[in-house]
Every structure is written in C-alpha cells, then in structure tokens.
Give the backbone structure.
Amino acid sequence: MRIDRLIEAIRELRNPTALGLDTRIEYVPEPFARAHAGEGGGAAAVLAFNRELLRALRDIIPCVKIQAAYYEMMGAGGMACLGDTMEEARRLGYVVIADAKRGDIGPTAEAYSSAYLGSGAPYASDFLTVNPYFGTDGVSPFISDCGRTGRGIFALVKTSNKSGGEFQDILCADGRTVYEHVAERVSEWGSGLIGHNGYSSVGAVVGATYPEQGAELRKKMPHTFFLLPGYGAQGAPASHLAGCFDGDGSGAIVAASRSIIRAHRTAGTDDFASAAREEAIRMRADLMRVLPGLAP
Amino acid sequence: MRIDRLIEAIRELRNPTALGLDTRIEYVPEPFARAHAGEGGGAAAVLAFNRELLRALRDIIPCVKIQAAYYEMMGAGGMACLGDTMEEARRLGYVVIADAKRGDIGPTAEAYSSAYLGSGAPYASDFLTVNPYFGTDGVSPFISDCGRTGRGIFALVKTSNKSGGEFQDILCADGRTVYEHVAERVSEWGSGLIGHNGYSSVGAVVGATYPEQGAELRKKMPHTFFLLPGYGAQGAPASHLAGCFDGDGSGAIVAASRSIIRAHRTAGTDDFASAAREEAIRMRADLMRVLPGLAP
C-alpha cells in the first residue's frame, strides 16, 4: 500500500516534507527559461525546472505534491508537462501526490479517478487530493480504485485558507462543526484500507494554519494520515504542526511549495536548485525540532 | 455579460437545454470511431463525434456543457480534444459551460480561473462550474475574472447525487442547512454582477433530483441562475424542474448528457446525430409542457 510506502519513505529520510511543485513560469530564472525554451508557452522550461529540482532534492525530500492547476492553465502542453513531471518523480523514487482537489457525482468521479489512480492512468499518482462536498457516492469511485491498486487519497477536511471556516466551521444542530462531520466520514471511508503502519489509504487535508483544530482531529482520527498545507509562504510556523503528528513523529506530511521552489528569489540568485536545497534542509531541521519522535 | 447571452440564446431557441458532452470513447459507434481514429487513444474519434453532434444540434440547443473529467482521463491528447471541442462549440455560436468543479485556495484558484475564464484561457468558456468548499477567498479569483471578462460561474449548492445531502443537508445550529448557507453566499457573491435580465454572473448548481429544495432555492435566490443536472439518465422528470424556473420560464437551464449523446444506443442505430436530434426535440417538448412561460 502506498500509505505504507509514504510513511516508510518519510522515516528513511527523517523528513515529513512534501515538495510542492506549484510551478509558474515566472518562478523559473530567465536564463534557465531561455536555455530550455520549447513550444507551448513555457511548459518545456517548467518541465526542465521541475526535473532539476527533483534531482537536486532527492536525498532530502521523500515526497512531491504537484498542483494540477498550474499545469492546466498552460493548456494541453501543460498537461503533458504534468504527466512528464510525475514520470520523472516516480523514476527518481518520490512518492507522488497529485493535488487536483477533484470531486463530482459517481460516474464522473470514476473518470477523474481513472485519470490519476486507475491502472494505466495518464497522470499516475500514489495519492490524489479529493473534494468531499458530494458525499460518499462521489468519493467511493476513488476509494474503490485505492482498494484495487493500493493507491490513496487525501480528502479535504479543514482547509488552510482564511475563509476555509465559512462553511467548514458552521456549527451544526448536533453541536459539531461541518468539518467534524466530514472528518468522521473520511475516517469511515478509510476503515477498510488500513496498512501495516496503522494508517489508512484515505487521508485528510488539514490546514497547518489551524493548529488547535488539527490537534483535535489528530485525536479523533487515529488511523487517518494528514496532508498539512499552510507552512512557509502561508504563514504557519513549525510549532503549529506538532499537534497534527502522532507520538512517533508519524501521521502527517507537511507540504511546502513557494518557500522551496522560489527560494532563489528570496536569496537573490538564479541557482534555484542550491537555494531550494538550502531551504529544504532548513525546513527539515525546523520540523525536526518539534518532532522529537522522528529523530534517530 | 455572458449570463445575458445565455438567457437570450435560450429564449431565441425556446429551449433551456444544455447539451452535456460527457463523451466516453465507448459511446462512439465503432464504424465512426474507426473512420476517425488518430493518435492518442480515442481523443481524435471523440473530437469528431463531438463536432458532428454540435453541428447536428445547433438549431435546437443553445448551450453546451462539457465535462472536463472525460477529457482529463485521456491524458494530454484528451485535454487538447477538450480545447478543440470548446473551440468548435464557440465557433458554432453555442454558450459554453466548462463543467470542471474546480476549487482551491486563492492563488491556486487564480490559476484554475485563468485556465477557463481568463483572457487568453486555453479552455476559454463562458461559464465554469466551481466547488465552494473553500469559502469566499477560494471563489473570489473566479468572480474577479467574471467581473473583468463578463464570463460567469456556477457554484455547487445542492448536488443531484444520492449522497449529496450527507454534508449539504446537515442541519445547522441556526435552523438552516449547510446548502442554504452556501446558497446565501452564492447569492451575495453575485450581487455586484447582475445583468440586464435580472440574473447575475454567479449561478448555482441545483440538482433536479431534489424538486422541493430547488423550488425553495428559486424563491430565496431571485437573481441566481440555476444549472440543473439530474434530468434524463439520472432520473428526474420534467415536472420536477418547473419549480426551479421563474414565472417567465427563465432562470434555469437543464443539463442532459447521456440521454442525448447515447440516444443511438437506446435506438439501436449507429446514426448518433439523428438519434441525438430526435431526443433533443423530445426533451425540448417535454420541458415546454411544464414551462408555459417559454412558449411563443
């Protein structure tokens, strides 16, 4: 099961970081973009940039989260770049999360699932992020594929953005919030797919920007692995993340995108690979400080 | 504004039908698929099939809703087919709805919006369906583009599937349901973008399979245009739709996909264009019976 592979890959590198490849052509240093220009409005340069980052970070980071939106906006050439980036990440041994937040009614969810989680999927990924607004029959096609292929999903529970609570935090008549209702279902959806490390193939997206809610969810969802956006560019410090992990320093992975892939901008250099390495190493140390369970 | 164009196109053809191009290669009759086979696993045949349907139905149906999932599952070639299908639909004068249910945090929602609603979008559409789970700051990039370009969105409020109510119908502490909370925001989001026909650029997806809730929402959201899935293959009869329209027979459009694009299967023929025409004409008459306001 890919959830076990993810947990073991994190343990091996002692680093619960997912490299977020939310690559916009503007992030690619101009000389590099010129040297790798091809047809299709920047997709060739983005692919070369991604490949170089993936190679540079392989001994530090175990997992990559690729945000579909930034490839979709470049048209069909961008989607080819998405597939090629995923292929390179798989070839290098990264665990691959497709961050596409897909969701629809059953027959359509089946089509999305076959794009990312099915056998022969054009964007074959270990995990896909999923929007749960449609409820069980909209999510079950993804879960069926997880059962068949060992792949997994991360369903949105509590998102990292400021307005996330607008619907997710609504207080329900039974005294719980909407996101707690969603959390309960997500936990149920994964109950038949628990791997040998105690976590299921059905994970949850929990914003690191809401540390109290994250810590509560950790207690209520002991078999649910968390994908934590919100660290770095979105503002959550490492101390906000600790409660989302279990006592062994497992149970979650922290996504960081702009802080790593734009580190060269902050550093004022075109050597993006070295700047990304430096930031990835700094981030690993930062996380390690609050996760003693992960230390050797 | 595209919402006015949509309303006027419906009035002109006296038909509130959106042709759903949820085209799977299995729907394409084999002789036709063989004759139009190209590289890329069926995308060429799907494009030829879509083009023939679009040409065959232009004098009957004003609007086309293209489901992104069925193109995404075919890889980059499928996404090129999505773009080419949209281009043909625009060229023929259809109002184009991209049914992609996209949604994410602000910066990522911006990227999705530029893929469908921005100027120079690779999948340029008049409308995009949007998932509201992230709340206002996740939806506002789409609304900004709507303000700039005159395009529009349809936000999920009450979906047509059986499990839709699992989260959407939860009773909140204030006595309202979650979908009523969402409906209120959707109405607010559109309040600054109302066209000369009285409807805003921010529409709502309301399942025709829940007629009572649809009729209630119609009253509560007088400026919100509805996209109604659930007719035909999903089981809602025309009588269930009437309450979602206003007194003039405007205010909503009914999506029908499988019942039209697979009509040749039901009829036992390979002449899919004629079978689709026949079903589209039958559907128009069926809708007209419950929408006297649309009659001449």
